[in-house]
Amino acid sequence: MMSEVREALEGCELILLIADAKKKWDREDAFVLDLAKKAGTPVFLLLNKIDLLADKSKLLPLIAQFQTLHDFKEIVPISALKKKGLDELLSCVLKALPNGPRYFPEDQITDQPVRFMAAELIREHVLMQTHEEVPHAVSVLIEQFEEGARLTRIAAVIFCEREGQKAILLGKGGQMLKKIGTAARLDIEKMVGTKVFLELFVKIKAGWRDSRNFVEELDWRRQLQQMGGPPEGEQ
After folding, report:
1. Residue range 39-67, pLDDT digits in tens
2. What is the model's pTM?
3. Most buried among 8, 120, 190, 196, by the most CB within 10 A?
4. Number of folded domains in the chain?
5. 51 DSSP 8-state letter
6. 120 and 207, same structural domain?
């Protein structure tokens, strides 16, 4: 698995490494940075959660501290939750990436089907609403996606690894899951241009990240083929 990660990183034009500005750099962070170093690819360090720094004067010394760890191409302070620094990040990324041929029409921003972008929006709101209570060991699988002229019906499963995580995702009386669903539904409606009926379910799948078959099942190209869509590369 580690060799596959290295190969993937070596194929990148740019690596974005996220660090928690409030958390002490630990062995896991060092391990990820080491992988990035071995890839020989330019690395941006994103210092996240700067909104939680009570003393803003500590930001510059913090950046200086991280500069000793690696020759980062850029160190960009951001707050993903408060959406601070994201415009600067986008600008830096666009400057760093080489120009390439246009593969899609100008008004097409992604090659991923809408149903799988919906899964990413749901996962985004899981992480935003639960903050640090639920780790990033959460995946979302769309089980139903029916588009109509006025209404899009979606059923999705949120997979977590432990019973305690499921309890957090559900919340007291199901309130947390309702909150996640409402926020995700509003964003999906903006994307698809219709009203959305969204059903969310939470299931436990222990160790799903170590299951190659399950991880492959999450891949949208594989799912599209299973649903009878065109093989990759065909229109």
Report:
1. 888 999 999 999 988 788 889 999 999 99
2. 0.52
3. 196
4. 2
5. G
6. yes
